[in-house]
Amino acid sequence: MDEQFKNPKAHLRALERRAARRGQARLIRLRDERRELARLDRIARRVPKDRGVVTCGWCGTSIKVARVGRMPKWCSSACRHRAWEQRRAAESGLVAVEVVDRAVEVIREVTKTETVPVVVSPTSATHWSELLTTLADRLDQGRIYDRDVSELLPAMSALILAFNRRAR
């Protein structure tokens, strides 16, 4: 009995042979499943996990990140040395450039100015009608400030008087 525990693999093979002789298909299936799981586990451990790509802090080339270990900052020892020289010079005040290890994405608000054609003086009765309708709508919606309404009053009064004279 003690011999079976000295070499567990040999003992397991002997049990499998005994099960095969006795026609115990269940044990054989379990053995096959266990072997398949072990095989899949070995394959999974061999496949490298992709940790992505980073860029070199000096020259900007792409560096593939290894499966294990630290994230690289430099693509080569030459780039690492150049960055060290730059930092050393910047610290001594010889160069006013600071080396940045990682690029940072910055979101900025951009104001875009567009040139829009504005009709200064309508040329037809249709244009005048559209313009006056737009003015009336904006007055009803409160989109024209109260301080501006007082400036519109003399022009609107003159418009109504001229319209009444013409319509008679």
What does this protein look like?
The protein has 168 residues and is mainly α. The chain contains six helices and two strands, in the order αααββααα. It has helices at residues 2-6, 8-22, 25-46, 77-92, 125-141, 146-167, and strands at residues 53-55, 62-64. Strands 1-2 form a two-stranded antiparallel ribbon. A hairpin with a 6-residue loop joins strand 1 and strand 2.
Mean pLDDT: 79
Rg over CA atoms, rounded to whole Å, is 42 Å
Helix coverage percent: 55-70%
Question: Strand arrangement, largest sheet?
Answer: 1-2
How many strand elements?
A: 2
* Low confidence ranges: none
β-sheet strand percentage = under 5%
- The computed structural class is mainly alpha
SSE order, one letter for each helix or strand: HHHEEHHH
Main beta sheet, described?
A: 2 strands, antiparallel
Bulk shape: elongated
End-to-end gap: 128 Å
DSSP helix count?
Answer: 6
